[in-house]
Amino acid sequence: MAMDEAEYICPSCGEPIVTPVDVSMGREQEYTEDCPVCCHPVTLKVTVTRPDDIRVDAEHE
Fold first, then answer.
1. Using alpha carbons only, how large is the chain's radius of gyration in Å?
2. How confident is the model at residue 52, as a pLDDT?
3. In terms of C-beta distances under 8 Å and separation of at least 24 residues, what long-range contacts does 51-55 make, across chains too?
4. 3-state secondary structure of 6
5. pLDDT bucket at 2, cuts 50 / 70 / 90
6. Which end of the chain is more exposed for a tag (fewer CB within 10 A), N or C?
């Protein structure tokens, strides 16, 4: 398992969040997790172009 980290801004509370990303799960990933600050669910769309280049777009669930 190849884990890395990426950062996104929570669309509910505006806080920057660092989240682990399993780059071995593919170049395009989408999943939901709760914001660790405000506990609102956030849908994350992850794009991995290289192991050191990860983009995370966060949206309200």
1. 11
2. 77
3. 51/2, 51/4, 51/23, 52/4, 54/4, 54/6, 54/21, 54/23, 55/6
4. strand
5. low
6. N
